[in-house]
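2024-03-11 09:14:02 INFO receiving multi-entity request
2024-03-11 09:14:02 INFO entity count = two
2024-03-11 09:14:03 INFO echoing inputs for audit
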Amino acid sequence: MPKRTDLHTLLVIGSGPIVIGQGPEFDYSGAQACKVLRREGYRVVLVNSNPATIMTDPEFADATYIEPLTPEIVEQIIEIEKPDALLPTVGGQTALNLAKALAENGALERHGVELIGAVMESIDLAEDRQLFKQAMEEIGLLCPPSEIVDSVERALAVADTLGYPVLVRPSFTLGGSGGGVAYNADELRMVSERGLKLSPVGEVLVEMSVLGWKEYELEVMRDTSGNFVVVCTIENLDPMGVHTGDSITVAPAQTLTDKELQRLRNMAKRVLDKVGLATGGANVQFAINPEDGRVFVIEMNPRVSRSSALASKATGFPIAKIAALLAVGFRLDEIPNDITRVTPASFEPSLDYVVVKFPRWDFAKFPGADANLGPQMKAVGEVMAIGRTFPEALQKAVRSLDIGVVGFGARLLEAPAAAMRVPTAQRLFQVAAALHNGMALEEIERSTGFDPWFVRQMADIMVIQSTIINKRLTLDRLDERDFRKLKHFGYGDAQVAKLIGVEEMDVRERRKAYGVVPSYYRVDTCAAEFEAHTPYLYSTFEEGDEAQPTGRKKVIILGGGPNRIGQGIEFDYCCVHACFALKELGYETIMVNCNPETVSTDYDTADRLYFEPLTVEDVLNIIDEERPSGVLVQFGGQTPLNIARELADAGAPIWGTSVDTIDLAEDRKRFNALMTELGIAQPPGATALTREEALKVANDIGYPVIVRPSYVLGGRGMAIVFDDAMLLEWLDKHITWSQHPILIDHFLDDAFELDVDALCDGERVVIGGIMEHIEEAGVHSGDSACSIPTIKITHYHLEIIRDYTRRIGLALGVKGLFNIQFAIKDEVVYVLEVNPRASRTVPYVSKATAVPLARYAAMIAAGKTLKDIGFLDEPVVDGFFVKEAVLPFQKFPGADARLGPEMRSTGEVMGHAASFGRAFAKAQLAVGSKFPLDGTAFISVNPYDRNAVVIIARDLHQMGFRLLATRGTAETLVQAGLPVTIMNKVSEGSPHIVDAIRAGEIDLILNTPRGSVAHADGSLIRGTAALYNVPLITTLSAALAVVQGIRELKQKTLKVRSLQRHHTQDRG
Amino acid sequence: MKPGLLALEDGRTFAGLGFGAEGTQTGEIVFNTSMTGYQEILTDPSYHKQIVTMTVPHVGNTGINPEDVESERVWVAGFVVRALSPVVSNWRSQIDLYEYLRDQGIIGLSGVATRALVRHIREKGAMRAAIAHGEAAADAAALVELARSAPDMSGANLVDDVTCAEIYNWTETSNVAWYPQQHYDPQGPLIVAYDTGIKRNILRMMTDRGLRVTIVPARTPAADVLALKPAGVFLSNGPGDPAAVTYLIDSVRDLLGKTPVFGICLGHQILALALGGKTEKMRFGHRGGNQPVKNLLTGVVEISAHNHGFAVTADSDLHGAEVTHVNLNDNTIEGLRHVDLGAFSVQYHPEASPGPHDSLYLFDEFVGRVKNQDTVGDRG
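2024-03-11 09:21:47 INFO inference complete, emitting structure
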């Protein structure tokens, strides 16, 4: 069937904030869908609460709603925009669940909106494990034996019949949230109780464990005419038992014969026929017993997923784009393959390379959390690497991770074989150590469950390393053949340099002298059978370079690498904008990145895409190949900045803000001197290289102090300490003394904090936006809610901030974007930090102001002035735009759910409205925290906050809330004449506050902790609140905002408005 | 591993390390884009006198098992891969690929820049080549000369090399693990299959569907075939230039209209030639498991397994036959039927092995035709 002409307006639902299990890949898929649907002439209405996305850029849709993803809000949008159809399959589980809710509450029917790309029955069938299992049995396929239970008692009974260990999977949760493995009844009690609570339908599946079986995934597409293709087969290195998002995976599948693979293909096809996927992309996961080839179907996702983003990047087959076209009636054979141009999309890509996906974890951010991997996803991002062989791809993947490990074997973690049984983020490095130490391959295979095929190739990598070490090889003894062999096994120059104890540049020089340089091969979907017209490239060290660089003037943009806490989708957004801007200026744009979840690595974002690690070597090789006019390092976050100096030293033409300016901003001494010169205040601070020095500095400056290791991202390891004891405890825990000093600054208690994003062209500074943090000082800016415009800052202070921003930008000589964090305390404006690069808040500011800051920054880097661009005045903001952070505490039970100077949020949402309170309420609603309009509020604050909390408690009381408080807080409130019931702390015995939360008796929690050591009681309260999804406020400033929000919500319901309408009204 | 070399007739050479047998061999250099199924490819008689390059880099991963063979021996003239697997991992494997090729006397080459080779073939077309493992690999010029001395594929009748010596019956069905749907019937309709290099999975697909199969040598006259009173005749796949197999074209001409005929690959080309059509050599052919073929009767696209270097000429007169299938990549004719004569054929491989199973329905159609033999001439 050709394109449907009965549809005109389509509603696309995005996936909301980046959370673990639902990352930037849905910006990629949603942006692709919006783009292609508009190209086909449809009017696209988009709703997504995440401002840091490309898809929510106003030019990607006809009407863009950055609004909370709730059925009520979306129904309002439907009323305004009157879409003919809703596409729910490109926005992850969030979009699917929302579509389901809209179907079930009758909204779709009420407004005559057709569901396209999926039918309700399919969604139900795929999502409900019991229904799915029945359906599989009907078509003769087997699932692991299991049973759905709705109580802990039933779970225990089922486990008795299946035998331990068992898997517990809650129904309808993201990324397997709340799942787990139970090896005995006690563990099962815990895991099933949590799962039951997290499941929106109060059910969990208790399932026979297939731990240790091989895991495969097929990414498939199907159209309404029954055309079916397998886009990609993926084999997991980690056997069953580890969530596929936490597994190292390999494409294509490597250890199946054709008979076995075709059986999976046939099964996948039957699954799709049965589950009746209307159209589009899906994935089917299988477990295979390596002993006898027995197959179980594990699950099927009837939508575009994280793995389909990976499969798209791994094959060059754009699944989301094609899924969107299929949803509006196209058939697979009516859609051309963009890469070959001559062949249709109704084919199966053939890969003549190997792809390795490696997850990126951030466990260091969550001390106390269980770092073992299991059925619940914990990775915050991933990298993908392409090589001609598995060893080459694996090595590239490891060095792409940006964790300071230059290759497989470069980190060796000794562990006994028994320890390798437990899947962790470190397991691959344990395997490297085991291989290094000569452990038998069979023993490694037995303990890890890795297929012998992979282990043997890892061993082959390690043999080379051992040879270099054992023979004490020196650089001059490496000949051309050695270099070729090293490169065939994926060794980076830095890895070789480390092994023989020389500088990386020496290795590079010698290697190049031998003519050992990479070829760039094209990802072409067809194993070279047809010519590829898309320059989507990867490096390898074989003959036959296919890059065909052009003679145009060109710019390389370095991406941000893997998603991680502190460096997320915001930076990809900036890279993509830089790319668009330079295209407009007539440059050929060349993107370098290794993150498969991004828009930047879409082959039609930049003119040319190098899917490569962001290391000095890999980037320099591309520069050698392309000879660009400029290289942009300021858009991809800290990753490209960290290699900027080495690139510049090697002669790379770094555009924009100079490397020296970057150093100046990061070098504390130089920066302090500059601030002193400019007469701008900074909190007193100093550095320390020893424990004793640290104590002295802290006492000289005066507590409280904020302490951090130098050279960290996202406030890693940062803490606020109040006395000597806390300082010593922190030092012992976080610091291994080295040549890097720790930084100690006076902490400005109770200060207001602000962020400013601004542009400088060297002659002029124009501010993009000034944001006021809602959380009080000390909360990392990435975790703090904030508002544009500011709410409590006086005109006087704003003018000082503007003046400082201008002077700092000019003094540093910034050429592009920079971000400054300010604090105001006791009428003094302090500068806390300057980052001479695109910041995390750029997309948010751009959405609030309709000013494309990142584009302008790229234009400045290319030599334009702000005057050329016509951006001369700080934008005036109409209404309020509130950004709120999304925290992953539910995924890390055991970690303290408290905000502090170390950033731990994974994503953000934005709420906008005419008033601050309502904008804030929207932002809260968007992070899933619906303000209660009445009910019971529990208050427990630290002694410093007791007086200030009275006003909040009084407001809550006046709005009809019942007040509960712990003893100390209650006394203060009673003195203020408020009716309050005393609730026991946990330490005071049952019935205590945690019991009450579990019993669902609490609607709102205000708990402000103090001190660096997580107080057991507070931590338990916050953990339970996170688990039971009770709105939790941990700072007084946020509490004030919440009270204001509740008050306004009680007066008037929330209204929605598209960005396009908002900003045109602005201008009008 | 000793050095190896691949030399093409145009003078280009590709170095690698040898495995399997030592020595030299010539053949036509071709490439296959299937990501799995090297064992089936090695043993497919259609690859007789061809040196096959696999585009998938890692080959040999799953070793060799006794089950996944398409004939009793390896037929490729040489085998070229990027990375021979250093280890075998599969529960069915019995020996590794190195050993297997050595035992079968076939030269393999690993470590070859296969993508560069494939792009060369794509641009210049399939050509004659020579492969060497061991001492002969040292003399590139001699190997290029050897390649140039090899016979051309155009005009070559290779069927006589691969056909069976004597008539025999086939009773084996598939392993139910791979093909769960089976209806074996020892009393079922008799199919006589011309062996021009027949793949075992074709035979199994027929026995699985309740057909009895008798295989006859390619030079068996039509009269002898008809004397067996077949319910249908099958024309198999096979190597070489179809136009050179004149005796079989003649036999098929005699059979048409007298019994339902189903042809695959070479059998499809033979049928077209018997109908009066023409065939031609393709630049580098189709070899792989991902080719989109559109069934013009249903509109459905089949992802299909291909292995052919010749094709039916698009504008040749097929005397009443209609095109039923086309390749969406390049519009090659992939299927024909002649309703009045009760004959149909496909250029690709519905038996797959290796490749997707989307086209197995063609065997069901054949069963349908032979079971309604009296209606030959009335239906399509």
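2024-03-11 09:21:48 INFO post-check: Residues 221 and 652 of chain A are 43 Å apart (CA to CA).
2024-03-11 09:21:48 INFO post-check: Chain A touches chain B through 60 residues (CB under 8 Å).
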